[in-house]
Amino acid sequence: MYRNNKKDLKNFFQRSYDDNFELFSKNTVNGLLRSLFEPIAANNAVSLILTRFKHTNSLEGIIKRLEYCSNVEMYSFLDYDNILKDDFVETEFVIITSQRYNAVLIWDYSDSKDKNETKLYIRLNSKDVNEVFETVKTRLKVNLDDKFYSFRPERRENALLNDAVYNVLKMLNENIKENEFNSKEQELIANKLDVKTDKTQQDTSIRHCCHEIKNQLSVIDIYAKILEKQFGDDQNIALIQKSVSLIRLQLDDLRASVNINFKEKNLKEVVKSSIEVFDKILPQNNNKIKFVDNTTSDVFVFIDEDRIFTVINNIVKNANESAVDDEIEIKIENDDKFAKIYIKNHGEKIPQDVQQKLFEDGFTTKKDGWGVGLNVCQKYLAMHFGSIKLIKSDDSETQFLVTIPLSHK
């Protein structure tokens, strides 16, 4: 094993790739890390992750999501840098062990001329994952043997899998490095032309472009209606109109992306404002709203208020359309990490096959629906590291849960 010599992690790293020298872009390494982390975060998979990152700017989003996963334990070695010398001084690494797979990555930018390329050691489901863990665990202040070996990596090389992954990674790396080279060339040309484009100018260009495209879409929409009058209920015309509507939606999302405005808000006030919108709409179906506050104090969240407003309104609108003579309940709760909004009604239950498709882009059960509402809600909440899910739908009630991280976390 390698645990008794501080030089061994560095030697292990060098030994593995001295004969197969390949430099990987920092963007390639970060993309690979996101690919390994994403399934764990998306499924809240039971996992143990050991890391040493010197720079995490491009990984902050996925790391935040992992921190909010209740089944994921993460330990960082960067906190112990005052005692980490020798092989740890420049080396970065990630060790992952989970129910689904095990992986280890080791890299070091210290030998790179521009600090943007590195050799990369990677193993998946290999005994080497065990050996690297044995090397680094001596620096931990807690004993993680039981947790790590509860998902013990296979005691074999898995050479075919690792060779295949490495070859695919090399091809991707070539494309990424080519794109980086082209970007640098464009930047040099722009500098020579004294072109100064800041974010404000880019955002303005996006808005103008969206405006002009929407103008042209309006013309297409008008001609589609003329054709509809001439040819009646034609499926091709309906598809044109649907495409126009979806393009408009994407343009709205694009324009909104340059106008995103996160501020700390009291979620109770946002929910109450959303409820007021339906004061005159709900009575049309003889429905009403009941607001239940199960919190003990104000609930502050860091949000783009308009997007969260849209999420709540979308769910309430669906609840109102699917029931009559009903009481729609909106309940707020919170724990030490999250604010939780429960929205339920007592209409017809959602069939099991429909439940599995609710959040798919384009799926709808309405004759005149476009199937984008809940999908957009999911995207908006993802921007906030939040989530939406259907937690119940039977003969008695249908209930959705919206979760948003508290701002102090």
TrEMBL record:
It holds the Pfam family HATPase_c. Its EC number is 2.7.13.3. Residues 208-408 form the Histidine kinase domain. It catalyses: ATP + protein L-histidine = ADP + protein N-phospho-L-histidine. GO terms for molecular function: ATP binding; protein histidine kinase activity. GO terms for biological process: phosphorelay signal transduction system. SMART domains: HATPase_c (SM00387). Keywords: ATP-binding, Kinase, Nucleotide-binding, Phosphoprotein, Transferase, Two-component regulatory system. This is histidine kinase. It comes from Candidatus Galligastranaerophilus intestinavium.
